[in-house]
Specification:
23% strand, 7 helices, 11 strands, 4-stranded antiparallel sheet, alpha+beta
């Protein structure tokens, strides 16, 4: 399969070989499909029966209010999962999944991870451990975002987010997974106001920003 590099990079399949991934996909009722830019793979209120692994392209997880205002929760690219927690309990989605580009997605029945495997797959236990780890990490990411949004000003939100990204990268220089509009949506701030604040912070010598690449500096 041409998309095995994306599957191998997926945290759900960590520690599994290509042959083991191939063997377990039927147990998860795996099926893949293409998508187009601007297409919704999931709308808020839909019952979620399958998690998705992005094989190619990029999708965005959004919260939308009654008037269509959007809050970006996360973006997912090749090898990344979405809607896995909702699929585990067949919940109705509180979010929408919008395709930012053309691409392909692999749908998986994550409930099967916690069910006895008829084929007694040796890799089934690894898969269940991986899924638990994924769910825990996503929960921590949501808690992190709540911390960013609790900051009062655009500058404080930016500083909290960029500081966390530097810690995660283990370096003062790092790349974020968002473009400027996505970052503004993720932090729930106005893009123009955010861009103005970033320019001001650069003039003050706090950071250097070039598209999605950032370097933070200690003030003198």
């Amino acid at each position: 399969m041409e998309f095995f590099p994306a599957l191998s990079a997926c945290s759900l399949f960590a520690g599994l070989t290509v042959d083991e991934i191939t063997a377990i996909l039927p147990c998860l009722s795996a099926r893949q499909t293409g998508f187009r830019r601007g297409q919704f793979l999931l709308r808020a209120g839909d019952e979620v029966r399958f998690a998705g692994v992005v094989l190619a392209g990029e999708v965005e997880l959004l919260q939308e209010d009654f008037w269509g205002n959007r809050n970006l929760l996360a973006a997912a690219g090749p090898g990344e999962l979405f809607a896995e927690a909702f699929a585990c309990v067949r919940a109705r989605a509180p979010v929408s999944v919008l395709c930012k580009t053309d691409g392909r997605v692999l749908y998986l029945d994550t409930r099967a991870v916690f069910s006895p495997c008829e084929k007694v797959c040796a890799q089934h236990r690894t898969l269940s451990q991986n899924l638990i780890r994924v769910l825990a990490e996503k929960n921590m990411q949501l808690n992190e975002k709540a911390g960013y949004l609790s900051q009062r000003s655009t500058r404080e939100k930016l500083l909290a987010y960029l500081s966390a990204q530097a810690r995660r990268a283990g370096s003062a220089s790092f790349r974020i997974p968002f473009d400027r509009q996505q970052l503004a949506d993720f932090l729930s701030v106005n893009r123009s106001a955010m861009s103005a604040e970033l320019s001001k912070m650069q003039r003050e010598g706090l950071l250097r920003a070039e598209r999605s690449d950032f370097t933070l500096f200690q003030p003198e």
